[in-house]
Amino acid sequence: MKKFFEKNKIFIAVIIAGLIVGGAVYFSLTEFGKESRDSGGENTECLAPSEAMVTKIIDGDTVIVEGGEHIRLLGIDADESGYPCYGPAKTRLEELVLSKKVRLEKDKTDVDQYGRCLRYIFLDDQNIGLQLVKEGLAVARFYEPDVKYRDEIVEAEKQAIENEIGCKWSSTPKTPLLPASSKEFEELTAEKTSLEVVFACNAGNYIGQEIIVEGKVVDTYYDSKSNTVFLNFEKPYPNHCFVGVLFSSDQYKFVQSPEDYYSNKTVRIKGEIKEYEGKPEIILETPNQIEIGK
What we know:
Elements: H1 2-7, H2 9-40, E1 51-59, E2 62-65, E3 70-73, E4 75-77, H3 86-97, E5 101-105, E6 117-123, E7 126-127, H4 128-134, E8 139-141, H5 150-162, H6 166-169, H7 190-193, E9 197-199, E10 210-223, E11 228-233, E12 242-246, H8 258-261, E13 266-272, E14 274-276, E15 279-283, E16 290-292
Parallel strand pairs: 3-6, 9-10, 12-15
Antiparallel strand pairs: 1-2, 1-5, 2-3, 4-8, 5-6, 6-7, 10-11, 10-13, 11-12, 13-16, 14-15
Helix pairs in contact: 4-5
C-alpha cells in the first residue's frame, strides 16, 4: 500500500485538489442561490418608522404612510370595496388620520403574507382601530399572537352590537349585499325559500341565521384524515371569506368527489351560518342545500 501511494502520489494529489476546488465552487453557488432567493421574495420586514404621516386611505383598515409602506390595522376588520360598510368606514378613517402624523405600534408579528406592516395606529393617545369599532364601522378581529388590545376592542364591539351603533350593527336596512349575478338559479331563490340571498364575503354578518349564500368556489380541499371536504369561496384558503363544509358522515348523499365537482363553479348554499376560527361557514348535510348556477 505504501508503494502504491508513493508511485501515485501526484495523481492522488490532483484528485484531492479537485475535490477541494469543486467543494468550494458548490458552496459558493449554494450560498449565492440562497441569497438570491432571500432577496427576491416578498417584503418580510416593515420599513415604516414608529411615527409617520398618513398619505392615503385604502379602506377602513388599511392605509399608506409616507415612504410608501402599507399599514394593516391590527385588531379590526372592515368591509372591502363593494360591501355595505366600505364607504362609511373608509370615510371615517380619512377624517381621523389622513394627512396626519400617527404613531405606529407593533405587536408580535411584523408583516402579513402580503408584505403589509401590521400595526396599531394611534393619533395622540387615541387607538384608531378601537374608535372604528366603537362607532360600529369595523369588527373586532384578532389572531394569535397579536392580541395586545383584544379586551378593549372586543368590549367596544359588544357595546356597539348591544346598542345597534353604526353601519355594522344598525337595525336600518342596508343596501342589498348580493352583486349582480350572471347565473340563474331554480331552487335556491328568495322567492321559493323566503330566505335572504347574500354574497359569500358578507356571510359573516349573519352568524346564527339561516340564509342563502352565493359565490364562486375558487379553492377546495379534501382532508384525507377526516374525510372532510371544504369549499372555499371567492379567495383561496386561508384568505377565503366563506366555506361550505361536507363531513364524512354525509358524503354518500352527494356527488362523487365534490371537491372537484364544485370547483370553479358559482353556487348557492342554504343553511345556518356558523363561525369557526373566525370564518363563516355552512355545514352541508343534504344535496338540496347546494345548487350550481346556470
